[in-house]
Structure formats: C-alpha cells, structure tokens
Amino acid sequence: MRDDDVLAAVRALAPALRERAAGAEAARRVPDSTIEELEETGFFRLLRPRAFGGLATGPDVFYAALREIAKACGSTGWAAAVLGVHPWHVALFDPRAQEDVWGTDDSTHICSSHAPTGDVTTVDGGFRLSGRWHLSAGCDHARWALLGGLVTDAEGRPVDMRTFLVPSADYRVDDVWDPVGLRGSGSNDIVVENAFVPDHRTLGFGPVTALRCPGHETNPEPLYRLPYAAVFTTAISTAMVGIAEGAYDAYVAAARDSLRASAGPRVAEDPFAQVRLARAAGDIDASRLQLSRNTADLYEVARDGRDPSTSLRARARRDQVLATERAIAAVDLLMENAGGSALRGGGDVLQRAWRDLHTGRGQAANDVERALVLFGQDALGIAVHDPML
Q1: Is pLDDT at 127 greater than 90 in this prediction?
Q2: CB 3.0 to 4.6 Å from 303: which of 170, 222, 346, 383, for a disulfide?
Q3: Could you give the CA distance from residue 342 to residue 251 in angstroms, rounded to a whole number?
Q4: Are strands 144-152 and 110-113 parallel, antiparallel or unpaired?
C-alpha cells in the first residue's frame, strides 16, 4: 500500500463519515464500522512501524489524511487523531513493549490519557498503577492505553514523569462522556485498580524530549526522530483545522442560495458576508500552511540526522496553538453570519463544528498562552525547560 492509496481511500470514505456524523454524536462514540473502514484505508498504518505492518510514512501524509477525516466528521477526526498518533508513540518504547502490543495483532489500537491523575508506586521490576484517567478519546476501540503518571521518591516528591502502557485487561472504561461538543469522540474515563506495569512498558519524558528512546534501535526511520510535543499537538490542531474546513465548505454551499430573513439580498450578495467569508478562509489557510511548514522543516531535520533546535520546536508549538485559535475564530465568524437557523438543535454542520471546536479548545495541547510563552522566552534568550517542547 502506498501513501497515495491511503489518501485516496480516506477521501472516498469521507462522504460516509459525513452521513454518520449525527449518529456518532447521538451515540457519543465513533461507530465500530467507521473504525473498521478507516483501518481498511490504511490510515492507522501511516505512523505504525514497518516491523509491525505499518508504513512509517512522512508525517505530512498522516496530517493530510487526518484533515480529510475531520472535515467530514469532527468527532471522528478527533478520535482518529489520537488513535492514529499512538502507534508513533509506542514505536518509541522498548521493542519488547512493541511486541506486546502488536506481536499477535498488528491492527491493535491504543488510546491515552496523559494527565498524571492516578497513583504510581515503584515495585520490583516495574510499577503499580491505580486511579482514574480522564478524557480518553476512542477508548472503546482500543486494547491498550497510554497513561501518564508521576513517579515519586520515598518522601513523596515527584522525580519523574512517565507514560505507562497498560493492556485493556488491566483497566475498565467508565462511560461518562457527555459534553457539549465532540460528543461522538467517546472520550470516556479509564479506571485502573492496582495493575502491574513492567519496566519495559514505561517511557520517561526525559528520553522522549531528548529524542533518545529505546525504540530507535528497531525503528530507525526519521519519522521517529520528531519531537513528541510537535507530533501530538499538531495532530490535535490538524483535526481542529479540518473541522473548520468542513464548516467553511458547508457554510459556502448553504449561503449561495440562502435568503435573508429581513427580505434583503441573498446572503451570497451581502458584502459583509463576503468579507467574513474571506477572513474565515484566510484564517483557515494560514493555519494549514503554518502547520505544514513546521512539519516539513522538522522532518527535514530528522532526515538529515540532526536534532531540531529549541527555536524550531518553539515555533512549531507557537503555530500549533495559533492554528487552533484561528480555526475557532474562523467558525465564530461564520456562525455570526449564519442566522438563527444555525443555532437550532439537530444536524446542522456549522453548529456542530462550532461546538466541537470550542470543546476541543479545552485540550491541554491547545493552551495558547503557555505555548506562546515558550516561544517568547526562547526569542528573548531565556532558557526554556518544558516537557511539551
């Protein structure tokens, strides 16, 4: 299977995803059939290691396919962003962990919840985990979970931040997801009760940030030499930009023939509507182009065998959060001009996109001020120390 084949298959599937969007929202989860069909397109193989049936392709292909999914259905795009990026993360783990996940089924999906909300206890040969982890998109379709946790010393002081890879047999999914937007993403809670996690199924943030991970021994492709913060957060922002693109397309299609309730000109003939449309399109284009530029620059550095500079990492985070901000602003403009019909309940595409984007803004990766501070510090010559860079 080639990259072009995956993109073509995803685009061919998009109309079906669009038709299922209201159903996914009502069910509060992505339909099983959608996950199965996305697997058939090859989407989930894009960032999976070649040793386990993956394509280990360039990140631009993954993000292009993800944007097409999110344009069709925001909730599906959000879940696909998370489930799709996790094979890349697992590829950084000890080869034994990769074998645990994909050794008997190379199509296994992995969900996550990275906030360190559970309890971690160090024991011989590994750790024990207990607690509740929130907002795990697509977890109903996963057989493994990546869970964040703080490792403490004897006095209870945090000494390490790690990611723990836990099989579904060691946790349960608590169906609590009932938000305003992204309702179909199935972002439920993961509950763990005294599960043992061996050392080889954990990965510290230090090696990840330094780009020196045990998985590099078996996965030498440049794809796996990209910064975690850039890969993960760009997936989230790409989904949001895709949602905005879908809303824009729906608005333009509806506005061409819509009449003003005040018996004025058609919406398409209203100069103020035209200006808002242009501003929204500009914000969406700027977001997409900056994300693409940073992905290309980071991948070029990785192909050259170099480590990305702090400045490049900071720029990628800056543009990632600004892409999120612009996507929301674009759809806000369209909503302001859409009239009362867009505010009604039901299957209105623009309203759903508006709710999805404002819900997605709450994801930690989209903390605009935090990311902009990192860029400002680096630009002013102040040393930057942050795991999300």
Answers
A1: yes
A2: 222
A3: 10
A4: parallel
Q: Considering the domain 3-107 in this protein, what is its CATH number?
A: 1.10.540.10
Q: What is the second-level CATH architecture of the domain 110-203?
A: Beta Barrel (2.40)
139 contact partners, CB below 8 Å, separation of at least 6: 111, 145, 173, 186, 187, 188, 190
Q: How far apart are CA 157 and CA 239, in angstroms?
A: 37
Residues in a beta bridge with 32? none
Region 228-244: mean pLDDT is 98
Q: The tokens of 15 are what?
A: 């109309």
* Residue 133: strand pairing partners: 190
Task: State the greatest distance between any 2 C-alpha atoms of the chain, in Å, as a whole number.
Answer: 76
Superfamily of domain 226-379: Butyryl-CoA Dehydrogenase, subunit A, domain 3 (1.20.140.10)
Q: Looking at the predicted structure, is the pLDDT value of residue 256 above 90?
A: no
CATH 1.20.140.10 residue ranges of the chain are 226-379
Q: Which pTM value belongs to this model?
A: 0.96
Helix, strand or coil, per DSSP, at residue 167: strand
Residue 261 clears pLDDT 90, i.e. is over it? no
- Name the residue with higher pLDDT: 271 or 316: 316
Cα(105)–Cα(125) distance, integer angstroms: 26
- To which residue do tokens 């449309």 refer? 277
Residues in Cβ contact with 303 at an 8 Å cutoff, skipping those fewer than 6 apart = 222
Give dist(CA 290, CA 379) in Å, integer. 18
